[in-house]
Specification:
- The protein is α/β, with parallel strands linked by helices.
- The chain has one domain: Rossmann fold (3-Layer(aba) Sandwich), CATH 3.40.50.620.
- The protein contains nine helices and six strands; from the N terminus they run βαβαβαβααβααβαα.
- Bound molecules: adenosine-5'-triphosphate (ATP).
- Adenosine-5'-triphosphate binds next to helix 1, strand 4, helix 4 and helix 8.
Length: 219
């Protein structure tokens, strides 16, 4: 396939740990948008939350196990190789340089993350680098705050085909078929309480967490 016809997505997160809510969303959003590649990118130092207990390298290793051989989905450790806090705008700039100006590049975020978008660094620049696709997440429904409405302005489109006519600058909201009410917080809480997390995350990820004792003790 020629580079010009590629479509690329990025799904960033803390992935502390990766779970089936992330992975099934990744597969479904890749299908819905017709993406050739979806980069799942763990943040070593998420700017808007406390430092995770499990190291960035360990979270990346769990992500790799979780993705395994899933076609088109890449466990991308690029933010671990950068100094300082991880800003999505810098990551998008890197991807834009690698894939070139013409390729539609899409940043995918859950609705909970979207509600905090105005706090992100250089948020205006995000739309000059990428499109934004916001995916619905069970348990999160709210009217858009006015600052968010102002930020998004007239960028909203309602079809994937409209989004893909340009390389960046539009926003599409999507409800994917399998909405999963799974969060990493819930998984960490269950592990801390010695409760089962079976079927909330891939078996290989569960095994690895249990073997290494992650999330199972207070620090
Ligand atoms: P935590 O509970 O620790 O805050 P999380 O489960 O929300 O973690 P993150 O790593 O913070 O996971 O999420 C990364 C991205 O994936 C965010 O954009 C988030 O909205 C999205 N996401 C996480 N879980 C789901 C889910 N179950 N369905 C859809 N999107 C999700």
């Amino acid at each position: 396939m020629s580079r010009a016809s590629l479509k690329v997505g990025m799904l960033g997160g803390t992935f502390d740990p990766v779970h089936l809510g992330h992975l099934r969303s990744a597969v479904e959003v890749r299908e819905a948008l017709g993406l050739d590649w979806l980069h799942m990118i763990p943040a070593p130092q998420p700017p808007l939350r406390d430092t995770p207990q499990v190291s960035p390298e360990q979270r990346l290793a769990l992500l790799k196990k979780g993705i395994a051989d899933t076609p088109g989905i890449i466990a991308d450790g690029r933010e671990l190789r950068r100094e300082g806090p991880s800003y999505s705008v810098d990551t998008l700039a890197e991807l834009r340089t690698e894939y070139g100006e013409a390729v539609p590049l899409v940043m995918i975020i859950g609705f909970d993350a979207f509600l905090r978008l105005t706090q992100w660094r250089r948020v205006d620049d995000i739309f000059s680098l990428a499109h934004l696709v916001v995916i619905a997440r069970p348990g999160y429904q709210a009217p858009w705050p006015s600052a968010l409405k102002e930020l998004v302005g007239n960028r909203v489109v309602d079809k994937v085909s409209t989004l893909m006519q340009r390389p960046c600058g539009a926003l599409l909201s999507l409800s994917l078929p399998s909405m999963m009410a799974i969060s990493a917080t819930y998984i960490r809480e269950r592990l801390r309480a010695g409760e089962s997390v079976r079927y909330l995350l891939p078996e290989a990820v569960e095994q690895s967490i249990l073997q290494q004792g992650f999330y199972q003790t207070h620090e």
